[in-house]
Prior knowledge:
Blueprint: H1 11-45, H2 54-87, H3 98-110
Amino acid sequence: MFIADGDALTAAGSALEQLLLAGESQLKADNDVSLVADELRRYQKFAPPGRPSVQIVQLRRQQSTVQQAQRIARQAFIRNADAFARAIALDVPQKLGVVETVMRWLRANLA
Protein backbone atom coordinates (compact mmCIF):
# COMPACT_ATOMS: atom_id res chain seq x y z
CA MET A 1 0.00 0.00 0.00
CA PHE A 2 2.87 2.38 0.77
CA ILE A 3 5.74 1.05 -1.36
CA ALA A 4 5.60 0.86 -5.15
CA ASP A 5 8.25 -0.70 -7.40
CA GLY A 6 11.63 -1.00 -5.69
CA ASP A 7 12.16 1.56 -2.96
CA ALA A 8 9.82 4.21 -4.35
CA LEU A 9 6.92 5.31 -2.18
CA THR A 10 3.36 5.56 -3.38
CA ALA A 11 1.33 8.70 -2.82
CA ALA A 12 0.01 7.19 0.40
CA GLY A 13 3.53 6.31 1.54
CA SER A 14 4.76 9.79 0.83
CA ALA A 15 1.78 11.27 2.70
CA LEU A 16 2.48 8.98 5.66
CA GLU A 17 6.13 10.01 5.69
CA GLN A 18 5.20 13.70 5.65
CA LEU A 19 2.63 13.11 8.41
CA LEU A 20 5.18 11.39 10.65
CA LEU A 21 7.73 14.17 10.06
CA ALA A 22 5.10 16.80 10.89
CA GLY A 23 4.18 14.88 14.05
CA GLU A 24 7.82 14.78 15.09
CA SER A 25 8.10 18.50 14.48
CA GLN A 26 4.98 19.13 16.55
CA LEU A 27 6.34 17.07 19.46
CA LYS A 28 9.61 19.01 19.34
CA ALA A 29 7.76 22.33 19.34
CA ASP A 30 5.60 21.22 22.29
CA ASN A 31 8.73 20.25 24.19
CA ASP A 32 10.39 23.59 23.42
CA VAL A 33 7.34 25.50 24.67
CA SER A 34 7.32 23.60 27.96
CA LEU A 35 11.08 24.09 28.47
CA VAL A 36 10.90 27.84 27.92
CA ALA A 37 7.80 28.14 30.12
CA ASP A 38 9.57 26.27 32.94
CA GLU A 39 12.62 28.49 32.66
CA LEU A 40 10.50 31.63 32.61
CA ARG A 41 8.56 30.47 35.68
CA ARG A 42 11.81 29.78 37.50
CA TYR A 43 13.16 33.29 36.84
CA GLN A 44 9.87 35.08 37.51
CA LYS A 45 9.47 33.29 40.81
CA PHE A 46 12.40 35.18 42.37
CA ALA A 47 12.13 38.41 40.39
CA PRO A 48 11.63 41.56 42.43
CA PRO A 49 8.44 43.53 41.81
CA GLY A 50 8.55 46.34 39.32
CA ARG A 51 10.26 46.53 35.98
CA PRO A 52 11.23 43.08 34.63
CA SER A 53 14.89 42.28 34.14
CA VAL A 54 16.48 42.00 30.70
CA GLN A 55 16.70 38.24 31.11
CA ILE A 56 12.96 37.91 31.77
CA VAL A 57 12.17 40.10 28.76
CA GLN A 58 14.39 37.89 26.58
CA LEU A 59 12.69 34.77 27.92
CA ARG A 60 9.26 36.23 27.13
CA ARG A 61 10.39 36.95 23.57
CA GLN A 62 11.75 33.43 23.30
CA GLN A 63 8.47 32.10 24.65
CA SER A 64 6.45 33.95 22.02
CA THR A 65 8.80 32.67 19.31
CA VAL A 66 8.48 29.02 20.33
CA GLN A 67 4.71 29.39 20.75
CA GLN A 68 4.49 30.68 17.18
CA ALA A 69 6.60 27.74 16.02
CA GLN A 70 4.25 25.43 17.90
CA ARG A 71 1.20 26.90 16.14
CA ILE A 72 2.89 26.54 12.75
CA ALA A 73 3.84 22.92 13.51
CA ARG A 74 0.27 22.15 14.60
CA GLN A 75 -1.13 23.63 11.38
CA ALA A 76 1.36 21.63 9.31
CA PHE A 77 0.34 18.45 11.13
CA ILE A 78 -3.33 19.14 10.42
CA ARG A 79 -2.61 19.75 6.72
CA ASN A 80 -0.55 16.55 6.49
CA ALA A 81 -3.22 14.55 8.34
CA ASP A 82 -5.78 15.75 5.84
CA ALA A 83 -3.51 14.86 2.91
CA PHE A 84 -2.88 11.42 4.38
CA ALA A 85 -6.58 10.77 4.94
CA ARG A 86 -7.26 11.71 1.33
CA ALA A 87 -4.36 9.59 0.02
CA ILE A 88 -5.59 6.39 1.68
CA ALA A 89 -9.29 7.28 1.24
CA LEU A 90 -9.86 7.16 4.99
CA ASP A 91 -13.50 7.58 6.00
CA VAL A 92 -13.58 10.52 8.43
CA PRO A 93 -16.65 10.74 10.66
CA GLN A 94 -17.91 14.29 10.86
CA LYS A 95 -18.06 14.34 14.65
CA LEU A 96 -14.54 12.98 15.07
CA GLY A 97 -12.47 15.15 12.76
CA VAL A 98 -9.49 14.41 10.56
CA VAL A 99 -6.74 14.63 13.16
CA GLU A 100 -8.38 12.30 15.66
CA THR A 101 -9.32 9.81 12.93
CA VAL A 102 -5.77 9.76 11.59
CA MET A 103 -4.32 9.42 15.09
CA ARG A 104 -6.60 6.43 15.74
CA TRP A 105 -5.55 4.91 12.41
CA LEU A 106 -1.87 5.41 13.28
CA ARG A 107 -2.31 3.82 16.73
CA ALA A 108 -4.17 0.85 15.28
CA ASN A 109 -1.90 0.22 12.29
CA LEU A 110 1.58 1.35 13.33
CA ALA A 111 1.64 0.32 16.99
